[in-house]
Write a structure and sequence with these properties.
The chain has 10 helices and 12 strands. The protein has about 300 residues and is of the alpha/beta class. Strands 2-1-3-4-5-10 form a 6-stranded parallel beta sheet, with helices on both faces. Strand 1, helix 1 and strand 2 form a beta-alpha-beta unit. It is globular, with a radius of gyration of 19 Å. The two termini are about 35 Å apart. The structure holds NADP nicotinamide-adenine-dinucleotide phosphate. NADP nicotinamide-adenine-dinucleotide phosphate (NAP) binds next to helix 1 and strand 4.
Length: about 300
Amino acid sequence: MKIAILGSRGRLGAALVRKWGAAPDGSGEKPAHEVRGFARPELDLLDPATIDHCIDESFEWVVNCAAQTNVDACERQPEEARLANTIAARRAAERCAKTGARFIHLSTDYVFDGRQREPYDEEASPSPLSVYGQSKADGEFAVLAALPEAVVARVAWVFGPEKPSFIDMLLSRALAQKKVSAIADKWSTPTYTEDLADWLGMLVAAEAPGGVYHLCNSGSCSWRDYGEHALACAAAMGLPVKTTKVSPLKLRDMEAFVAERPVNTVMSTRRFTQLTKITPRPWQDAVRDYIRDFPPC
Ligand SMILES: NC(=O)c1ccc[n+]([C@@H]2O[C@H](COP(=O)([O-])OP(=O)(O)OC[C@H]3O[C@@H](n4cnc5c(N)ncnc54)[C@H](OP(=O)(O)O)[C@@H]3O)[C@@H](O)[C@H]2O)c1
């Protein structure tokens, strides 16, 4: 397949370019796909002409990983959030409708308000609390309206080697100091980019029907659980962390947060599992492998 990755310097986009553009490990075979990444300045979400230019007729699939992902920046600059996460997403889908490419658009658990007790499935109605969540929910709607066969892939708490995230920040703190803390009353499920690249690859291979898919590792945790598991894995691997305990913080005490965050956005991957017969592995295994394969320097 010839595949365009929009946002190829981001955490997920860079992982897709690396994994999909490389030969299977040690095989000496040709890579599975011909992958072309697009990043700034060649791609500017605020300049629709650059989106059209990047998506030419040669691509069979286009994956949109580019977005304004800073939740508080979106709250401060709602118009930029709308342009990047809604208008640009729609433009990319419209362009794919013209060129005949299949389109995968990445979205977020923040489309939900987080008040539900059970995991959210793909049929649950979005009800975002923040400008970021609203701009992504509007983006999903606009993409599917422009191109019903588009795949909207919602992910949560993405981590991986291409760009530091919560887990890297917590590990680096615990390597330097004895006391670390994290929010203990907000729950979701981490998503490892190595796994996510495989799952998205399965959707491509299966010519997945259009619509919404949830893609995250299985299980659920708070940021504190997530951090304590990461520290336990690091200690078991002999990394010189100064503590394996994470003190609890309350979401409501996070004065630096501008945007309201949903409390419980655990997602069910039912639709993906029905299509592929694959149940994503538990988040704990993914975190362990990440720390083993990409230890902090
Ligand atoms: N990270 C998470 O925990 C998380 C959770 C839920 C959903 N998601 C979704 O997953 C997708 C991928 O996220 P990620 O973690 O890979 O995010 P990321 O690392 O922030 O990557 C987003 C990319 O978009 C690019 N971008 C932002 N504004 C742009 C603009 N105006 N023009 C061109 N490029 C622009 C950024 O470019 P620069 O590098 O140049 O700034 C960045 O490389 C996004 O749709 C996000 O909403 C992520």
